[in-house]
Every structure is written in C-alpha cells, then in structure tokens.
Automatic annotation (TrEMBL):
Binding site for pyridoxal 5'-phosphate: 239, 273-276, 371
Protein's job: Specifically catalyzes the decarboxylation of meso-diaminopimelate (meso-DAP) to L-lysine.
Enzyme Commission numbers on file: 4.1.1.20
The species this protein was found in: Spongiibacter thalassae
Cofactors required: pyridoxal 5'-phosphate
Domain of life: Bacteria
Pathway: Amino-acid biosynthesis; L-lysine biosynthesis via DAP pathway; L-lysine from DL-2,6-diaminopimelate: step 1/1
UniProt catalytic activity: meso-2,6-diaminopimelate + H(+) = L-lysine + CO2
Subunit (UniProt): Homodimer.
Protein known as: Diaminopimelate decarboxylase
Domain spans labelled Orn/DAP/Arg decarboxylase 2 C-terminal: 29-369
PROSITE patterns the record matches: ODR_DC_2_1, ODR_DC_2_2
C-alpha cells in the first residue's frame, strides 16, 4: 500500500500530480492522502473484528481537523493530551465518549472541560493527578472515569527521546506501585475505575516489547481482581513503527493477531492509541530547491522548507526519504546536504543525499504525515505552511498558509 507513486515521470498523491498541487497551493506544503489514512485505520479495526475494542487515534501525530474528521467517520476514538486537542476532536465531529485523555500535566481547567463533555477515560499518570481529578469531579458533582497509566519498565528498543516505558521516563506510574494506587482510587468517591493503560514508546520495529507489556498488564489485572477491583479495558497505547528507510515495519494485522492470541478468551475491551502507523506515510512535505551551493568539500541544496516546518531530522537525527517530484537525467548527480533557510546549524532535512537537481525543482520529503505539521513552529518568523488533502482525483486546502498578520496576531506595541 502506498499513497504516493510515480506516473508519467512525475510523483503523484493518489490521482493528483504533486506538481499540480504545488502550482495551486504554493510551496512548501504538506500533502496527505485520505485513502491511505483510511486504509491504515481500517487495518486496526478489521483486525479487531469480533473483539470488543476501540482504536483511539493519537491526535498529536496529525491534528488537522480534516484528518480527524476522516477518521471519526470510520468510528475512531481519539487519544488527546490537551484541551486544545479535545476541542479539535469535537470540532471535527469526533465523539467525546470515545476520547481518552493522556499526559502528565493535566490542568484543573482541562479536567473540568473533559468531564463536562463526558470523555471515556482519563489516563492518569501520577498519584497527585488522581487526587486532583477527584477534587475537580467533586466540584462538578460527578465521577471521573479513570485508567492508571502504568510504566511496565519494558525496553521499547527505540530512540531514547521517544522511549517512554522505562522506569527513568517521566510517564506513568511504576507498575509495582499500581495496586496501591488502584486501592486509593477505589477509596475516592468521585472516581470510577475503568481500566489500565500504557504506552511504552514510539517507532517500535520489534513487537516483542508490546507482548511483554501485555503479559505484565494481565498479571496486574488478575492481582487487582483478587482485590475486588475489576477493570473493563486494557489500553496498549500506540507505538507501532513504520518504514522511513529500510525498516521491516511490523504488519498491523499480525501485531493485533498476536495480542489477541495472548489475550485468549478474556472478556475485556482492547484499546490502542496509534498515531504514526496511521499518519506518517499518508503525507509528504512538498518543498522547492531555492539555491545550490557547490563547494569542493560539501554541496548544499537550500530548500524553502526548514526545521521549523519539519523538526524530526534536527531533533532525532531522523532519516527521511527525499524524492524528486519530476526526476531528471539532464544534470549531474551530486552529494548534497539538504538544508533550510533557518539560522541554525542544525537546520537540515537530509544529509549526504545523492540527487540530480536544479534550482526550482520540487522535492517531496516522504513519511511526513505524522509529527510533521504538529511539531512545526514560527521560528525565524516563518509562517506555518499550507496543508492539502488529496482524495482520489480531488484535492482540498485543509489549512491555509499563515500570513504576516497571522504571525503577529495578539501582539501589541507598548503605549509609550
Ligand atoms: C500516550 C501516547 N499514546 C499514543 C501515542 C502515539 O504513539 P505512536 O505515534 O508511536 O503510535 C503517544 C506518542 O508516542 C503517546 O504518548
Ligand atoms: N514526535 C516523535 C514521536 C514522539 C511521540 C510522542 N509521544 C517523532 O516524530 O518521532
């Protein structure tokens, strides 16, 4: 399955040429495939057929309301980490009762809003948060549905910055302490215990750590049952890896099947929070070569996109593929560092790439649909770029390029 392919010597998203997109909406811009998003989501829900389940797409991966709407139409739930993400889900037609709220720093105002709209569950990350949630629910005269995010101390074997399930990480509650925390939750009048959740890391290529995690969660579920605490759902989080370069990305169906085999005939709702595996390869960042700087020791291709538009290479030294939109043979292949206009040495999108390019050529940074636009910023007073959704032979502007007025919105001069 691929959203992007070459046709008549040019790169296409579904049935639309990326050159046409750039001509219409300008460069740089993000381009997403509706079909690909849908297919990746359906891989989860199809594999879960016959099992009580909910697939909560992790909004942080790509939070454009058109993306959320496409998934909401398929019955998706949503994993949020802020009230901003909650409002996006609601604006996109997502259902509050399919929302789980993760994150280590939920404010009282965020808790209040989530309780008012009636979300499915708070994924509680600390004992202090549990107490705060009980207080806020008491003020509103309701009971807050809770799951404890446990930290299973499993090594996800991924990049240290995106590994979250180890003891030293700030996320979740040590699984060894979890029974005591559930007891405390059970003793509080304004909490209702629903389930258990975890998220051990992102971009996992080997699924063994997920199975190890499930093993530990099931032991916890059994231990709690002996204490008369019954959990109705197990949420295994997100984290399934994708192919950026030559990784053998896990197959979603096989992953779910392995989890279901291990679960056997237990009566429990199974939940997941996938982000990257749904959105990453649904998108590219379209960019234009501005200048070639040729030096005897190193060549630079300066493009119009930068680290503020796509942070992953700078932040994680992530390797992302760079595809010429209209490949050419009429210029020499050279080795380039592909860099943006931002004033930082760390501003690069690709290093040491062999390319046949000229100024004015369009390039597509592959696998940019997740953690691309959502991590973009206005650094160097660069407006955030446009976002476009392709659907078959149709294309839609789903976020306008930011203007100079957008850049200064809310700022004010001093009176004197
Ligand atoms: C709590 C939680 N759930 C889900 C996700 C989504 O992860 P991924 O994009 O790797 O599927 C994340 C981010 O890593 C997360 O922190
Ligand atoms: N932003 C990261 C993933 C972090 C996951 C957030 N919990 C990336 O681009 O790979």
């Amino acid at each position: 399955m691929s959203a992007f392919h070459y046709q008549n010597g040019s790169l296409y998203a579904e049935s639309v040429s990326l050159s046409d997109i750039a001509a219409e909406y300008g460069s740089p811009c993000y381009v997403y495939s509706r079909n690909y998003l849908e297919q990746r989501f359906l891989e989860y829900s199809n594999a879960l057929e016959g099992q009580d389940h909910l697939v909560c797409y992790a909004v942080k991966a790509n939070s454009n309301i058109a993306v959320l709407n496409v998934l909401a139409r398929l019955g998706a739930g949503f994993d949020i980490v802020s009230v901003g993400e909650l409002e996006r889900v609601l604006a996109a037609g997502g259902k509050a009762e399919r929302v789980v709220f993760s994150g280590v720093g939920k404010t009282k105002a965020e808790m209040r809003r989530a309780l008012e709209v009636g979300i499915l569950c708070f994924n509680v990350e600390s004992e202090a948060e549990l107490e705060r949630l009980n207080e806020v629910a008491a003020e509103l005269g309701c009971r807050a549905p809770v799951s404890i995010r446990v930290n299973p101390d499993v090594d996800a074997k991924t990049h240290p910055y995106i590994s979250t399930g180890l003891r030293d990480n700030k996320f979740g509650i040590d699984i060894a302490r979890a029974p005591a925390v559930y007891q405390r939750a059970a003793s509080l009048d304004h909490l209702e215990i629903k389930g258990v959740d975890c998220h051990i890391g992102s971009q996992l290529i080997d699924t063994t750590p997920f199975l190890d995690t499930l093993e530990r969660l099931l032991q916890l579920v059994d231990e709690l049952a002996k204490q008369q605490i019954h959990l109705s759902h197990i949420d295994l989080g997100g984290g399934l890896g994708v192919r950026y370069r030559d990784e053998q990305a896990p197959n979603t169906g096989e992953y779910i099947a392995a989890i279901r085999r291990r679960l056997g005939d237990r009566q429990v709702k199974l939940m997941f929070e996938p982000g990257r595996s749904i959105a990453a390869n649904a998108g590219v960042l379209l960019t234009t070569v501005e200048f070639l700087k040729l030096n005897p020791h190193k060549n630079f291709a300066v493009i119009d996109a930068a680290m503020n538009d796509m942070l992953r290479p700078s932040l994680y030294q992530a390797w992302m593929d760079l595809l010429p939109v209209t490949p050419r043979e009429d210029v020499d292949a050279r080795l380039y560092d592909v860099v943006g206009p931002v004033c930082e040495t760390g501003d690069f999108l690709a290093k040491d790439r062999e390319l046949r390019i000229e100024s004015g050529d369009l390039l597509a940074l592959a696998s940019s649909g997740a953690y691309g636009f959502t991590m973009s910023s206005n650094y160097n007073s660069r407006g955030r770029v446009a976002e476009v959704m392709v659907d078959g032979d149709q294309h839609y502007l789903i976020r306008a390029r930011e203007t100079v007025a957008d850049l200064m919105r809310g700022e004010a001069l001093l009176p004197l």
